[in-house]
Amino acid sequence: MTGIKKKPARVAIGLGLLLGGVIVLSAAMGVVRLPFVQVPAVIWEKLWGRGPGDALASAIIWDVRLPRILTAAVVGAGLSVSGVVFQGILKNPLADPYTLGISAGAAFGACVAFFFNMSYFQGLSVGLCAFAGAVTTLAVVLYLSGGTAGGYSSNNLILSGIIVAAILSAGISFLKYAADERVSVIIFWLMGSFVAKTWMDVGISFAFVSIGAVVCLCFGRDLNLMALGDRSAASLGVDVKKSRLILLAAASLMAAVCVSVSGIIGFVGLLVPHMMRGIVGADNQWLLPVSLLAGAVLLLCADTFTRAVLPSEVPIGVLTALIGGPFFCYVFKRQFSGKQRF
Amino acid sequence: MGYTLKDICFSYENRVIFSGISLEMETGGFHGVLGPNGSGKTTLLDLLTGHLKPENGNILLDGRRLDGFDAGELAKKCALVPQDFRVNFPFTVAQVVMMGRYPHLGRFSAPGAKDRELVAQAMAATGISDFSGRHVTELSGGERQRVVFARALAQDAACLILDEATSNLDIGHTLALMTLAADRVKNNGLTVISVMQDLNLAARFCRSLVFLKNGRVAAHGPVDEVFTASVIKEVFDVSSSVYFDEIIHCKQVTIL
């Protein structure tokens, strides 16, 4: 019993250091290769408001690369935490941030924006429409699953999510069909990308993801208890309905912002929680922070790979699915074969 | 004191379960709840734990209305061993038992020495210490049920509610857990309310019995008074012969 598992703390510290290292490394990598030491130098300059030592390097690192890198890291973190929460609430290891149709809602919103060629709010209209689509979808799913007996039970939520997502994807297909030559823009957006992200994207995603993550971290224990089933959780002092609603809202908002900023990036929210559960165990108090860090590292690595290593850029959503899919098969086979049969 | 139910009404959607039952279960007793399938046994427990709210009537716990407790407060007074228990995530046995301590911990405070000791005691009492490091997803049904029992013991509540808590256990572990519960009733003033299927087990360990049928109390009282062939005939519709067993010194029944 002594020291149940101190391992998670070490894993978390290790991942934190790794994240810092990867940020610096990836900021130096790219079409223009820069020495690694220049990255901290530029950040130092900017933070203290000094004039640039090297204007070109400063512009490349500060204005072009860092916004994209930080957005990728924040989105990776947000999707992973959201994935842990969705799996916990729905008591289903196969759930991910998109199970409730958040992605379909965001995609539909974005399609509408593209379809009507919206260009208000300095190019933010697509993101705003995507966010509105995701939030509306969540509201509809909650409405559908809440009224019936056993309000917000995992079966109700999953079913409602599937129904709403099916309707929305038909809507997306219709918009694509009707969009004629603009269909390529829609398809490209749907595949996800961190190209040309600005500090504004970093700020928006960071604000939402950090608030959402803090809420989720506060409910780590409740999430553990909810895994035991509603009856047990209630008998252990959890207001199941309220906690579930708060967690759902926090996790969905994180996912919605991530999708609005970067398009649909699959597999991160499914894969990271599984990998981390294999390493630190199922206790959500550790699983949440560790997944947050691991998700940031993973998505940043994937984005750097497509940006700086591949000869020409592959959409990040395609890449994560191409790498994540087979890897998930491996993890799934190893972790679950023979262990979880019921 | 203990639980007092006054004119409780409850129904699911359009199926009426209780239409005005009243019941009293005193502190420090071992109460058995018996009845055929669908007679409302689990619903009764759900009402007692506050998981379901009655449409009408009052439930008092130690003289205080149940809906006046907040969930955390109630969790310190009343622990539940549910009927089915399935976890899809690989928590270790020790982690699950430690969850019984959560109601006593602050949101972020780590478990202290007392918590760890209670968890270790609960695991020892239920004989699961040997596999405290295993994942609950890998356990058999009976092993899992003992883990849940240990978690409820670790919760250290004055009232233990058992919903067919021994349904998956072999006879050895069944007797061990029931004896454990009965000892705590006798020595520590624990209140146990247990839904059971096995009439002989109920007669052996409980001090008072509640027979439910079709959402009403068919009989309620000390075992000696209500454990009779006529009550069993009325509730379960089977003929039986009730006798006093000289070896274990309690009433037993043979179904004819």
From TrEMBL, chain B:
<dbReference type="InterPro" id="IPR027417">
    <property type="entry name" value="P-loop_NTPase"/>
</dbReference>
<dbReference type="InterPro" id="IPR003593">
    <property type="entry name" value="AAA+_ATPase"/>
</dbReference>
<dbReference type="GO" id="GO:0005524">
    <property type="term" value="F:ATP binding"/>
</dbReference>
<dbReference type="GO" id="GO:0016887">
    <property type="term" value="F:ATP hydrolysis activity"/>
</dbReference>
<keyword id="KW-1278">Translocase</keyword>
<protein>
    <submittedName>
        <fullName>ABC transporter ATP-binding protein</fullName>
    </submittedName>
</protein>
<comment type="function">
    <text>Part of the ABC transporter complex HmuTUV involved in hemin import. Responsible for energy coupling to the transport system.</text>
</comment>
<dbReference type="InterPro" id="IPR017871">
    <property type="entry name" value="ABC_transporter-like_CS"/>
</dbReference>
<keyword id="KW-0547">Nucleotide-binding</keyword>
<dbReference type="Pfam" id="PF00005">
    <property type="entry name" value="ABC_tran"/>
</dbReference>
<dbReference type="InterPro" id="IPR003439">
    <property type="entry name" value="ABC_transporter-like_ATP-bd"/>
</dbReference>
<feature type="domain" description="ABC transporter">
    <location>
        <begin position="3"/>
        <end position="239"/>
    </location>
</feature>
<keyword id="KW-0813">Transport</keyword>
<keyword id="KW-0067">ATP-binding</keyword>
